[in-house]
């Protein structure tokens, strides 16, 4: 027999149950209010921190002013972290729907606060270190001040990267729009901050060494000519040896590629079989062709050996740059006066060096001498400290991003500092997230007609695992009779005067498969070849383009499915001619 409560006890139970429900409801409301208020306060602090950092973005580029900015930001990020880290908040993170929102806010607050905490020691180590430190005083840069920042920069870079990766890993699918946007913005900010700290780490580690902090140092500088293309930019015309010691720079020697003519008989070093199968031995026989292989770690040692054989000095590093880089540097130095009577400016440098000089001087040695005088004048302005430091940082950064400034160090430990940066000038890298195509141009005319050629490189996904690569060459060359023979080539290599013959080398990502290729506008004067370089299939297209003409190459490629599709290409005289995303040229 089952006992049942007396009827008089039922109201008591009902009242007790109702009380419990009310208590739970009140507790729920209190909990909701508690979390809501703390979430609102936390978001306010994070927004204030974001606004402060955004407004002080320029200040953060200068370590001397960063400490005050970070102090104000730290108060907000620390408060946000405390507001989202109590036990009640942690319990609520396990609830359905609202839990992921709270967890995302908490992760964001924690990551940003940790990042600011990592930057504080860096700012302290940089106290009193202004961007002005890179300006030479009495002909020397204070390399000790720069080197002192390295440990803090390395620690900050590591922590910032961990924080950025942590937020990037947050699943944004269940998040509300505002929360998802906040996480995305914070991840982007931390990613940029990590890159910046890493760049500072590299610079404070490498710059003092290259400026002779550890003893005498010699660097070979290769000046590439974008009017005659090579894969990494242009033919090497003028060269110089830059010596440094204790932050003091000296232009020790200059030369022309013509001074290396006797080396063309035999290679100065043996090339890898895959490189030689595509480029023959020319990069190892002629200084002009040391930038023909799209990997500076191949060409730089060859140029170093050529310089040793002709000038007797074994340099410690090799740097390559072009007239566009000089124009960027001139924005930092201001105009420089040349012995010719010209004032070289940021606006006229490219045209004067790559076009006007050939119209003015018929003798190639006079042309090289003019180029050397321009480079020497810019160098002297830098060595004398006649430079805006902030503009110099921007100039070097832009040239590096556009792959116009390349650096190779003979010391493998120093070169490792540049690992993963565009300054290395190595073959395009692909990974599980990104597939990168390389498109490189090489002159086959023996002329300076590439000044008038304009390339277009576009990549696009055509399907989940297929993509198109579109390459276009357009010539806006004037009437060839108005140009010097040295510029047109005079038909010496069988190319009609005024036409330009170009070898286009397309490097596919490792594991990619070429499915189809199409060409238009080539008038039959083309040819295909190819090979494999370091595990990458290479498609070479030789095409001739006359004044007012254009030609197109389209490749359909099967790739490993990745999130991003990218391309790198030979830097030209026009900084706007960069690879870009486009439309698939193989519809259907």
Q: Summary?
A:
The chain is an alpha+beta fold. α1 packs antiparallel against α3, α7 runs antiparallel to α8 and α12 packs antiparallel against α13. The N terminus is likely disordered.
Structure notes:
It contains 16 helices and 17 strands. The chain is of the alpha+beta class and 588 residues long. It has a five-stranded mixed beta sheet with strand order 3-2-1-4-7, with helices on both faces. A five-stranded mixed beta sheet has the order 13-14-11-8-16, with helices on one face. Helix 7 runs antiparallel to helix 8 (177-210) and helix 12 runs antiparallel to helix 13 (364-383). The longest helix has 46 residues, at 10-55. It starts with 9 loop residues before the first helix and ends in a 7-residue tail after the last strand. Residues 1-6, 16-38 and 54-60 have low confidence and may be disordered.
Topology:
Elements: H1 10-55, H2 57-60, H3 63-83, H4 87-92, H5 98-125, H6 143-147, H7 150-168, H8 177-210, E1 217-225, E2 235-245, E3 248-256, H9 273-279, H10 296-311, E4 317-321, H11 323-333, E5 336-337, E6 343-344, H12 349-360, H13 364-383, H14 389-401, E7 406-409, H15 412-416, E8 434-443, E9 453-461, E10 466-475, H16 485-488, E11 500-507, E12 513-520, E13 527-533, E14 536-545, E15 550-558, E16 564-569, E17 580-581
Parallel strand pairs: 1-4, 8-16, 9-17
Antiparallel strand pairs: 1-2, 2-3, 4-7, 5-6, 8-11, 9-10, 10-15, 11-14, 12-15, 13-14
Helix pairs in contact: 1-3, 3-5, 5-7, 5-8, 7-8, 11-12, 11-13, 11-14, 12-13
